[in-house]
Write a structure and sequence with these properties.
Four copies of one chain form a homotetramer. By secondary structure, chain A is of the alpha/beta class. Chain A has a single domain, classed as Aldolase class I (TIM Barrel, Alpha-Beta Barrel). Chain A is about 45% helix and about 10% strand. In chain A, strand 6, helix 7 and strand 7 form a beta-alpha-beta unit. Chains in contact: A-B, A-C, B-D, C-D. At the A-B interface, helix 4 of A face helix 4 of B. Chains A, B, C, D: One of its GO terms (molecular function) is 4-hydroxy-tetrahydrodipicolinate synthase activity. Chains A, B, C, D: This is 4-hydroxy-tetrahydrodipicolinate synthase. Chains A, B, C, D: Keywords: Lyase. Chains A, B, C, D: InterPro entries: Aldolase_TIM, DapA-like.
């Protein structure tokens, strides 16, 4: 159902802190122009938890207007199941094509609670769901065993695999075959994940470097692994910026430098400053200086 | 300003999931009867993140009606600074005596962001603040260095020390003397913390065992350490239930058995079940069977 | 210099606890028959730290007698630098082709100490060295920066990459190009490591399943990744046994079942027993029941 | 049997790297003069694993010559059980009063292996044993359950509690009453451990500051907790140097500054240098500048 490169897009703000839909239209459009296969809005990278529900729905509508029929997924990540269900319902009504669902943003659910929450969200939204498994960020592990338990409900169609352990991808295939579309959610494990069978990449640095991200995916799909690996090695210093507490600020700085966007974030986040900003900026500039020409692909 | 035993009270729900103010009035009253020195509402234990802001304010008002003039603190714990400030403002307007503030519930703020957030909440609420330092639960460490940076604002009056490392208490005294009231926030480190100079205990199992909690604190204050230690050793198997992902469910089960309350929680939480419930119940029953008579104290 | 499949062989003991050279000759021979590219003796898997230096040298000689001219590496892993140098010297004199070197088995060296120790061992043995980088087991990280510092000494020729983080392999290539032969030391990350450019596999389960291990390596070398991946997926439940505190016992049990060897280990290790043994045995038997026919390769 | 302050003494080396028995005689003597209750030789702090067995025995004899009849314990910490037993036997023959035993220095024993190893060492040495429980350094946790299993053998008389979690002390008392003498092995948790009932302190900074260490212990024993706590707060910046990968170098630098000894260590250790040395030296000097007068005690 879902495969290829799915950007987890950043949200854009005006100087007064309100949503900047024009800039989102421009930036989301760059993703689609580069050949991305859909858009995921209001995730961690999209600062969803810092927005009201009305704002999240507005971002989703902007994405839909740009996506040219390709799927737009709303992120469901809230403290309470009640709030998660509300997001799911509102997103469905407003035309989302699917949901990317975190069991709980605050409480660490046990296995039974994880399953119950995911099922409640599926009931509430009645949309196809990508299960977001990220035991590092959320301290809840949606394990292959839980994926198997959820498999009887056809609305659960995909896994965003962000365990930070590349072994997990093979474990999912060994347990569940191709029941789920497995997409990697960790930028600097993407080549490895695609090499062992992942069908897609929920990407972060793609926001600033959409063509390179798409090229790696497409080259691998065509069996041109050596070319993809060369590109990935170049890309790695940038991809590492996605695996950081400060991924939002890192990627917005990359967007500022690579696609002329801005670094505005919502509090408590602040833009990078001082030595950290210098270090990240120099990583980005160094990579851009040796930015490789992209090979042609199908 | 704040010292002694401050219960972080649980919230009570009716069968239909709505707030049960009668039961809260009863349970909060047991705390005050036992000699507690105030109440803290809508923390982790109070399931604050699972409630609307209106509900949190209602719980706070119920606590105020029971506290007999002793301080009632509202917990400020939200994803965005905007929402944190809104809670602070509403709580102040509604009559809270102080705030217990977590820098951010979701994002891991860096030092500058931590300070900025705490200052923004102080501005918004203009109430005395207990800084909640809990690097384990929130992955943000409000260090003694940050406490020092915040010290120039007199609204920051207390620290809830929940680093899970008893060494930290002495580090705060060594750096800041008695600038802050240091209260321990970890039930099964409470004796140790009071032994090295903490002036209070933000307590959890107190919800089910208020008299024993108060007795340990008062005995130590009177220099009767051996008696306090004997009581603490008895209490330890119960206090351990506070240091758990399932502390809310654990403590509500203890309340059900010890003070006749109920175990209702809000999703995604579910009451304990199966082997886990049996194990916790047997710990509670075993402790209650050998519940010691309390010595008289001043 | 070194590439392909290099088994980290187990040592074999008689019932009285002494070395069983006949059984080692037989088992090491199975490795060479299957097409392995050398042998590494007296590592963790070889229980080197449980043997006297004389015993280690004897095991090395037995390996040399079997290896048919392919390289035999002695593991250098001791508490003190003095002892490490003694092992290196004795191994060189006795005919070892190279050394696999752990900076320190007990103390966690800082960067300067790590470099100094590795250089001291190189001086003492004057043999080609594979640097064993395993921050999990030894809590010392031989980082790419340290590899760069050591690069001026031509005796450091290879890296056994066992950081447990597949990202590290690409980091080494990005920093050092092909200065070092990079071999993966983690069985259940081997496909991924070879996919991103590792030239060899210091293998564990190879002791029990030499042909399958060699087949995966050779197929990938021939660009037949899909066939290799299918084999690797089958192999994964076994390869996981290498990433365990009990890897020696796990692999010896696999050897007992797959190549008719025995499970004897030296104290404090004991053979697996009880539920653990049942679980591991059932993993091994389950895999052997669906053992795939191997495709022909060059 | 054992209680009070037991220094884990450092070993002293001449410029040529050989043992400096004269300096050990002097330094061990300072410990006894200050009122320490015994000596423990060849532990981590004593660089035991960097010495030959003959050297360890020689250090033990030097300690015996100085201890004036107070107990001298030999540390048993080796990779193999065979080697552990050899140390125990040799130490017993040479006149050690007891053994401090680590289950295994390299391999992480499971519960059955931990018990078997400790029993084997008890058989071999037939001396009273202090079980060294340090799950941080050795990744083997000798839990209260295992202590209970070992309790039937009267040779196991004491616990060196170094779990880094102060809760453990109370857990031992709650499970085993006073079956074992519980001594804390973590300098900067010592006040807390003694406050909850530990009967002794296996100390590190005592090497450089014997009188202050003894004063804290004795004052607490006399119920003069406030005086002890004031001293402990002063001492904390120094005691923190014991909880470090570089504890040997830290404490030897403290000995150089406070008792005129030297910083020589055995490779792979090197003395502190650069910024680290400056930082540690300034901590030591700052504490010495405000070194308090010690109160008189019994």
């Amino acid at each position: 159902m879902w495969s290829g490169v799915l950007p987890a897009v950043t949200s854009k703000f005006k100087e007064d802190g309100s949503l900047d839909h024009d800039e989102m239209t421009r930036c989301f459009g760059l993703q689609m122009d580069a050949g991305c296969d859909g858009l995921i809005v209001c995730g961690s990278l999209g600062e969803g938890p810092m927005m009201t529900l009305d704002e999240r729905i507005a971002v989703m509508r902007t994405a839909k207007a740009v996506s040219g029929g390709k799927p737009v997924l709303m992120t469901v990540a809230a403290a309470s199941t009640r709030e998660s269900c509300e997001i799911a319902q509102r997103a469905a009504t407003a035309g989302a094509d699917g949901l990317m669902v975190v069991p709980s943003l605050v409480y660490q659910t046990n296995d039974a609670e994880t399953v119950a929450t995911l099922r409640a969200v599926a009931e509430a939204g009645d949309l196809p769901i990508m299960i977001y498994s990220n035991k590092i960020a959320y301290r809840v592990d949606v394990t292959p065993a839980l994926m198997e338990e959820l498999a009887s409900d056809k609305r659960f169609v995909a896994i965003k695999e962000s365990s930070d352990d590349i072994r997990r991808t093979t474990e999912i295939f060994n347990r569940l075959g191709d029941r789920y579309a497995v997409l990697t959610g960790v930028d600097n494990l993407a080549y490895e994940a695609l090499a062992v069978g992942a069908v897609g990449w929920v990407a972060g640095l793609v926001c600033a470097f959409p063509k390179e991200t798409v090229a790696i995916y497409r080259l691998m799909k065509e069996g041109r692994n050596a070319e993809a690996l060369a590109l990935y090695r170049w890309f790695r210093s940038l991809l590492d910026l996605d695996v950081s507490t400060y991924l939002v600020q890192n990627i917005k700085l990359a967007e500022a430098l690579a696609i002329g966007s801005n670094e505005r974030v919502r509090a408590p986040r602040q833009p990078l400053s001082g030595e950290t900003r210098k270090r990240v900026e120099s990583i980005i500039r160094a990579a851009m200086e040796v930015r490789p020409a992209l090979p042609a692909f199908g």
